[in-house]
Amino acid sequence: MMDIEDLNSKAKKISNDLRELGTKKEKKFKEKNKLESNLNKLIKEANELKSKKSKLSKEISESKKNRDKYNKEVQIGLKELKKIRDQYLKSRKKNKNFDKLKKDLDALNFRIETESLSSKKEKELMKQINEIKKELEDTDKDTKTKYNKLRKDLKKIKKLSDKYHKDLQIKAKESSEIFERLTEISKEISSIKKEKNLTKVILNGLKDQINTLNTKLSSVLTEMSKIPGAAKNALTFTKPKDEKIKLKLGNKLDKDAILKLQKRLMRK
C-alpha cells in the first residue's frame, strides 16, 4: 500500500497530465469549430453559385434559342434576296421590250442633243422620253421595292441575332467562371472534411485519455481517503480558496470531498 506522500505525488502528476490534455483538447476543439465555420461558409457559397448557375443555364438556353431562330430567318432572307436579284437580272435579259425601250430612249436623247429641232418637235420628243422613262421605272419599281424592303428587314433581324449572340457569350463566360469556382470549392470542402475527421479522431483520443486519467485520479483519491490525515494533505496541495471541502472525523475524505478535489485538481 502506498503512503500518503506517494499518493499525493501521484495525484499531482495525474492532475498535471489532465491539465495538459485539457489544453490540447481545448485547442483541438477550437480548430474543429473553425473548420466547421469555414466548411459552412463554403457550402453556403457553393449553394448560391449552383443556384446562380442554374438560372444562367436557363437564360443561356433562351438566348441560344432566340439567336438560332433569328439566324435562320437571316439565312432564309438572304436566299430570298439572291432569288429576287437573279430573277430580276434574268427577266431583264429576256425582256426584249425593256431593251427596245432603252434603245429608243438613247436614240431620242441623241436627237435632242445633236439635231436642230423646233420647239414643238423638241417638246414631242421630251414627252416620248418621259413616257419611256416612266415605263422603264414601272418595270423595275415593284422588284426594287420588294428587294429593298426585304433587305431592310434583314438588317433588323441580324441586329437581334447579334444581340442574343453577344448576350449568350457573356452568360456562357460567367457560367464557366462559376464552374471553375465550384470546382475549387469542391476541393476545399473535401480537404476541410478530411482535416475535420482527423481532428475528431484526435479529440476522441484526447477524451479517452482524459477519462482514463480521471479514473486513475479517482482511484488515487479514494486510496488517500482511507489514510488518516489525507484530507489535510489533499488540502495542502490543492490550496482551495474557500472551505468547501469539509473534513470528517479522523481527517478522512468522504465521497463528496473526493469529487470536489478531483474537479479542483483538473482546474489547476
Characterization of the model:
The protein is mainly alpha-helical. It has one domain. It has helices at residues 4-94, 96-114, 119-225, 230-238, 255-267. It starts with a helix and ends with a helix. Mean pLDDT is 79; it is low at 235-253.
Brief summary of the model shown:
The protein has one domain (4-267). It has 268 residues and is mainly α.
Q: Any descriptors?
A:
268 residues; mainly alpha
Number of helical stretches of at least 4 residues = 5
Counting structural domains, the number is: 1
Following the backbone from N to C, one meets helices and strands in this order, namely HHHHH
- Quote the distance from N terminus to C terminus: 27 Å
Oligomeric nature of the chains: single chain
Largest sheet: none
Give the low-confidence spans: 235-253
Share of helix, binned: over 70%
Structural class: mainly alpha
Strand portion = under 5%
Mean pLDDT: 79
How many β strands by DSSP? 0
Measured on Cα atoms, how large is the radius of gyration? 51 Å
Topology:
Blueprint: H1 4-94, H2 96-114, H3 119-225, H4 230-238, H5 255-267
Helix pairs in contact: 1-3, 1-4, 1-5, 2-3, 3-5
